[in-house]
TrEMBL record:
Pfam families: DUF2071 (PF09844)
UniProt-listed InterPro entries: DUF2071
Protein name: Uncharacterized protein YqjF (DUF2071 family)
Length: 92
């Protein structure tokens, strides 16, 4: 555990100023779907390669709830629902 704390501390060592947002992800569901390369390729920049598993491209749909503190003071809002849709690529 000490090693993880050290890495976290080093990762944020160069940041200056105050934090304005604290975010916590909860109630997460990870759902993955195979998708033909021909559908995804036109949506990805040319400098990137599609990352595959067993020569298959995958799309992930991730519904979750984001708990937000400190960004905006909106009464009665403690968390925000979100749906994250992503695929996996390699740069270069």
């Amino acid at each position: 555990m000490k090693e993880l704390k050290k890495v976290k501390k080093e990762a944020y060592a160069n940041l200056k100023g105050y934090w304005c947002l604290h975010q916590v992800w909860s109630n997460i569901l990870l759902v993955h779907f195979p998708v033909p390369k021909s559908i995804i390729r036109p949506l990805i920049p040319r400098c990137c390669q599609l990352d595959t598993f067993d020569n298959t491209v995958w799309i992930s749909v991730v519904p979750l709830r984001i708990g937000v503190k400190g960004f905006a003071k909106i009464p009665f809002i403690r968390s925000i629902p979100e749906v994250n849709v992503r695929t996996y690529i390699k740069y270069g």
